[in-house]
Amino acid sequence: LDRRRKGVIGPPLGKQCIVFVDDLNMPMKETYGAQPPIEILRQLLDHGFWYDKKDTTRIDLVDVGIISAMGPPGGGRNDITARMVRWFSIIGIDSFDEATMSRIFTSIMSWHFGRGYDSSF
């Protein structure tokens, strides 16, 4: 990201920045049930800015979007708050069976190696 002017940060003009956050629900809950890493992202989504820790001035982040992925709660994963969930469109995908996974990766690998793979690598 570039500094566009004082207090404004974003990608180069005419561009958009998409940030992918994997395993969004991995941060452990603190004593009061908050998840600080998620809360800092939620602040950005709610208000569109963060505060500079040095002098508490406002830093606007423009032309930045967030995409996320996470697994179901359990096994170290936690629920995330409804205040965070409201910013996302939820898409659920069932696990694939072994035959489907094999077909997907066989197709990808056949395409990749069928393009003139150099065996010296």
Shape: flat
Percent helix among the residues? 25-40%
Q: Measure the end-to-end span.
A: 35 Å
Q: Indicate the mean pLDDT.
A: 86
Secondary structure tally: strands: 6
Number of helices: 3
> Radius of gyration from the CA trace?
20 Å
Strand content: 15-25%
Short description:
With 121 residues, the chain is an alpha/beta fold. It contains 3 helices and 6 strands, in the order E-E-E-H-E-E-E-H-H. Helices cover 26% and strands 20% of the residues.
Name its key features:
121 residues, two-stranded parallel sheet, 20% strand, single chain
Architecture overview:
The protein is an alpha/beta fold and 121 residues long. A 4-stranded mixed sheet has the order 1-2-5-4. Strands 3-6 form a two-stranded parallel ribbon. A hairpin with a 6-residue loop joins strand 4 and strand 5. The longest helix has 16 residues. It is flat. The two termini are 35 Å apart.
Layout of helices and strands, plus pairs?
Elements: E1 2-5, E2 8-10, E3 17-21, H1 36-47, E4 49-51, E5 58-61, E6 64-68, H2 82-85, H3 98-113
Parallel strand pairs: 2-5, 3-6
Antiparallel strand pairs: 1-2, 4-5
